[in-house]
Design brief:
The complex is a heterodimer of chains A (279) and B (308). Chain A has one domain: MetI-like fold. The two termini of chain A are 37 Å apart. Chain A has 279 residues and is mostly helical. By secondary structure, chain B is of the alpha/beta class. In chain B, helix 2 packs across helix 3, helix 2 runs parallel beside helix 4 and helix 4 packs parallel to helix 5. Chain B is globular. Classes of the chains: A mainly alpha (279), B alpha/beta (308). The interface between A and B is medium-sized, with 18 and 24 residues.
Chain lengths: 279, 308
Amino acid sequence: MTSSLRFRAAVVSIVLLAAFLGIWHLATRPTAAATNMSPEYAKLMGLTATQGKSAMPGPLDVGAKLWEHLRQPFYDNGPNDKGLGIQLGYSIARVGLGYFLAVMVAIPLGFLIGMSPLISKALDPFIQVLKPISPLAWMPLALYTIKDSSISAIFVIFICSVWPMLLNTAFGVASVRKEWINVARTLEVGTVRRAFTVILPAAAPTILTGMRISIGIAWLVIVAAEMLVGGTGIGYFVWNEWNNLSITNVIIAILMIGIVGMLLDQILARFTRMVTFPE
Amino acid sequence: MTDKFISIEGIARRYPEAGGDQTTIFEDLWLSMSRGEFGCVIGHSGCGKTTVLNILAGLDQPSEGAVIVDGQAIEGTSLDRAVIFQSHALLPWRTVLGNVAYAVTSKWRNWDRAKVKAHAQKFIDLVGLTGSEHKRPSELSGGMKQRVGIARALSITPKIMLMDEPFSALDALTRGTLQDEVRRICLETGQTAFMITHDVDEAIYLADKIFLMTNGPGAVLAEIVENPLPKDRGRIDLHRHPLYYALRNHIVDFLVSRSKTFATTVTDHDPRNVPVVRIGKPELVVAAESEHSTQASWPGVSRPSTSS
């Protein structure tokens, strides 16, 4: 009886999930209610003190709250109470816009760097200095110059996702096999046609890998950026719920951030597979 | 050698070395071929064979000298000179048809899709790959990939085919079949071909003229051996020809010993008048084309003292 690896892996995953939820549930069980507490103090402490309820929400609390969110993802009751779908939508839109701008800049510039050793050497010191800067360090400068918190967040996404794409594009273009270039040369293929018919397809897997790294970083950074700029977005939601001391909502938000990040990564992984060629 | 279709005139290739010196791979190399001829270059690794071919293809520039093809000095690459690469160099993201069609559209830019396809198909059929048009290179065997390489080179109907050890990465059986194909195609189309090889038998089977190069650095074209075997030679009875072993031994002797000692033993080698060797029966007859021909003849015959 040998079931497929996939099936066995799925079983182990489910067992691990069940174990995690079980431990979580047991760890957050209500303890015995405190006795001999002055009623006023008990009122102040809430259910934790009066009924021994754990301060940390259990899986059932989170599940119930999640169900509530999922049934009504797009409600809007004013600036501090919007549905999870709306918050995620804002975040995805910011990431998408910043990321799109980064693609527009990084891929042509990466092509130039990859094809011209002169440009590559000339730009190298700038890239080396700019690359390790934490994207959030740009935030005050962006707020000061742009004077719009929402656009500043988009700028931060742009600046953090531009580097992996730029470097991967340059590397992919520079390391296209000499023999493919020679084929194009012996066929008298012009520079532009060569760039699109030989270099682009040959470098596409490397470029897409850079884009995949970038979307991951962008999604990491948007949460922090939105905590800073506030207003809307999943990062703001997390911070707002922390201020409300709603740990249940914080946990739900963490879960949602993970799921959306995974989906973004999977989309790019699919594109990467589409342009990858077997040799 | 009245009609010089390809004429390599005194080319040299030098590489700068640490310390300001230069390493000369080869210099003052003169070589010519007439239309429809099949020439093979044999020499050890490092003698600059591939560089000569790359210069002829336009992929590399000589440090000195020039190459004239069909009355014109070459400048860069050209669709008139097709290259079959050792590593086949197919574009892995294109199908067989796509690879050949890429070459076809590069030559005839305003052809419509159907015309390109029909033209490419003709050459795929010619190399015996009918039915594999839509496969990708990764799905093909080494021999099939090289067939695509040949089809791609032929599809642009070049004046010259340049081959850089095209079969060296293949197994002996596949190599034999592909040699047959190349020979058939070259005879049928009257193609001028220039090939680099390590394989003496391949050179004897395919070439009209075999160019022997000495070891580098400072390699020279030592002599040109004319293939005495009939034009309609077949693989099966090739080795039964009375001159086959004389020819083969001459080339092997050169590769084993004379390619190393050539520079020291032959002092009056004139690179512009490389001796042409014709192998006759029962002994070597050296063509009286060069005044230095006696010095360059087979040492076993003319200079018994140097043979060892």
